[in-house]
């Protein structure tokens, strides 16, 4: 890994790719409340970490074409939305996922004639999660099969996976994240089911798993279907996490 630009990134929400309508990602934050626990015998403030949260705020160009940003954001639904921010379409690249309440869809018409919307997503019951892509950005499985896997270091504290399902021509596929302890290039070795997503149609989902997550990670589809377009990321748990998976 190295220093990188913000070029070629992706933003997905609820199974819609609105990357081409997002002009800027303004905030990707993992704030924590701070609890003041200063005793009367201290001359400086004592603090401990409180509840965690998460936020993604972004600005979009108004676009009312089918499946673009207006269709994805206009409802400002009371239910949770699932958003993913991919820093590139490279396999194993950094990505962030959030299960959140959409708090705003504010429209601004500039004096230059521009028409933009600002949106804030605030995490609900979970923190924002930084992880890595399990697919090379958006990929298409035309039928049942497996993608090339990303190979990193094995971990032992579970994890959280996110899937965005953008389109599906027909059928009801099952989407499975598999891991491998002995792969060297993401295609060889032995693979086993790590977790199975419940979602089988266009939309998005977060799913957690406990225990060991082996070094190789890939997405496998099963069932009878045609042309599923998806993107997947996974955050590996760490021993320092405030709450385990």
Major sheet, described briefly? Answer: 13 strands, antiparallel
Alpha plus pi helix count: 1
Mean pLDDT level = 96
Shape estimate: globular
Distance between the termini: 26 Å
The helix/strand series, from N terminus to C terminus, equals EEEEEEHEEEEEEEEEEEEEE
Structural class: mainly beta
Per DSSP E runs of 2 or more residues, the count of β-strands stands at: 20
Strands, helices and their partners?
Layout: E1 10-13, E2 16-17, E3 22-29, E4 32-36, E5 47-52, E6 55-61, H1 69-73, E7 81-86, E8 94-102, E9 106-109, E10 115-123, E11 129-133, E12 139-141, E13 145-146, E14 150-151, E15 159-171, E16 174-180, E17 192-196, E18 203-209, E19 216-222, E20 225-236
Antiparallel strand pairs: 1-2, 1-7, 3-6, 4-5, 6-10, 7-8, 8-10, 8-11, 9-10, 11-20, 12-20, 13-19, 14-19, 15-18, 15-20, 16-17, 16-19
What does this structure look like?
The chain is mainly β and 245 residues long. The protein has one domain (10-236). 2% of the residues lie in helices and 50% in strands. It contains one helix and 20 strands. Strands 1, 2, 3, 6, 7, 8, 9, 10, 11, 12, 15, 18 and 20 form a 13-stranded antiparallel beta sheet that branches. Strands 13, 14, 16, 17 and 19 form a five-stranded antiparallel beta sheet that branches. Strands 4-5 form a two-stranded antiparallel sheet. A hairpin with a 7-residue loop joins strand 7 (81-86) and strand 8. The longest helix has 5 residues, at 69-73. It is globular, with a radius of gyration of 19 Å. The two termini are 26 Å apart.
């Amino acid at each position: 890994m190295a220093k990188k630009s913000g070029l070629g990134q992706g933003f997905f929400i609820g199974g819609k790719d609105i990357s081409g309508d997002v002009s800027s990602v303004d905030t990707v934050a993992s704030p924590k409340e701070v609890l003041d626990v200063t005793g009367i015998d201290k001359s400086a403030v004592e603090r401990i970490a409180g509840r965690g949260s998460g936020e993604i705020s972004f600005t979009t160009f108004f676009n009312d074409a089918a499946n673009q940003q207006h269709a994805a954001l206009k409802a400002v639904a009371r239910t949770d939305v699932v958003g993913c921010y991919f820093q590139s379409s490279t396999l194993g690249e950094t990505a962030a996922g959030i299960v959140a309440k959409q708090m705003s869809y504010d429209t601004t018409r500039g004096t230059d004639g521009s028409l933009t919307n600002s949106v804030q997503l605030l995490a609900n019951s979970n923190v924002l999660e930084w992880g890595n892509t399990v697919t090379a950005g958006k990929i298409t499985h035309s039928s049942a099969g497996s993608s090339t896997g990303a190979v990193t270091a094995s971990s032992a504290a579970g994890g959280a996976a996110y899937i965005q399902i953008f389109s599906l021509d027909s059928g009801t596929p099952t989407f499975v994240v598999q891991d491998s302890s002995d792969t060297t290039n993401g295609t060889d070795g032995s693979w086993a089911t790590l977790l199975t997503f419940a979602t089988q149609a266009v939309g998005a989902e977060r799913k957690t798993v406990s225990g060991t997550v082996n070094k190789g990670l890939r997405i496998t589809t099963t069932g009878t279907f045609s042309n599923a377009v998806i993107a997947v990321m996974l955050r590996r748990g760490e021993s320092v996490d405030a709450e385990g998976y």
